[in-house]
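Deadline looming. Please check this record:
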Amino acid sequence: MIVVKFGGTSVGDADAIQRAAEIVRGRMRRDPIVVVSAMAGVTNELLSLADQASHGHLIGALRAVEGLRDRHLAAAETLLGSDDGDVAGELSATFDELASLAEAISILGHITPRSLDAIGALGEQLSAPLLVAALDRVGLPVDLVDARRVIMTDDTFTRAEPLPDAIADRARTALLPLVRAGRVPVLGGFIGATLQGITTTLGRGGSDYSASLVGAALRADAIEIWTDVDGMLTADPRVVPGARLIERIRFDEASELASFGAKVLHPSTIAPAVQLGIPVYVFNSRNAGGTGTEITFDAPRCAVRAVAGKTGIAVVKVRSPRMLLAHGFLRTVFEVFAKHRVSVDVVATSEVSVSLTVDESTQLEGVISDLSALGDVSIERSRGIVALVGAGLSDDGAAMARALTAIGSVRIHMLSLSATGINLTIILDAGEVGAVMGRLHDAFFPGGCA
């Protein structure tokens, strides 16, 4: 049994959906369960129209609804021709519901996280029936399964936490009998529900996360992520034109790369698979015959596997003489970030100060207010992160020396080797990220073990 997940670009229009159907047909002997994202860009459009409605711009929101309706109905017509009646009717009913939600939000004048999830979840509820229709059209025994019957979560709306035991129970009940009967279950990613049946979403990277959760729940043989690139690369090709395909990579390396800018996977995506040792494959739906990338425990060990980078980073610094020889100071600092649900990427400490990096877009007012009670607080914005990742990095003194030499005279604000020794993280000015990524890539590739 395998889990096959299609990203938004892999179901972005009728042609893409047809390619996805052919990919599933080619995997029937492996008993696939299919997880599908919303069409490319649709979730962002849904959240945008919800925001418009909450600010009183109802006409603009309703125009957006009709634009989305036209896009989905056009895909249904292209896929199914004159036989699209039932599917078109289901889609139109969903858009009528969306229009009603927009009107209600406009009247209220604000939107709650719960309402935002109700709207954001519609993208997958629209794409899944289209893929089901395409699979049926090519003769596959297929069943649409509402993901809210399977992906159980808490009630932290817009970034709900999964309940693994409940998901395992629901997956065995809702999905396993279909697979055993030779049928193909299709469910939307990204969305779930509380135990009381209220719609939730898993946040960024949620569709990949859904696939991993289902794979872990049913002890799948593999999880396939189908996207619009050939796999994981040694760097972002938009920044480093000479980036190469990584055919095999370790779980811990892939997670580090995802955390520090690699766009193919969200770091949470593979966590359930990692725990059970389920291999994850990344393939290009436009190049179905490609080798892709295998993410596994037993990839060959090498000093440097890839370079990642991201901008939009802020450095928060707390300086306090009270840190000197004090017990529990750092715990108090991290409790502040935990209280405000702010994720920290990199930490560096001295005797009387601590520096932490966060996404620059994060709302930090509450964090700064609470930290100010501990000492002097400052924020440095417009920073970036470059991460050099490889399982053997800390064991190879020559690799470390080569990396520092490649960085050259660029001003570094923080430098950190991860506790596991597989990630050398450099904090620098945002404008230097691309150039430093290129220098590091030139220093290690070709010749690395991609």
About this structure: The domain at 2-228 is CATH 3.40.1160.10 (Carbamate kinase). The chain has a mean pLDDT of 91.
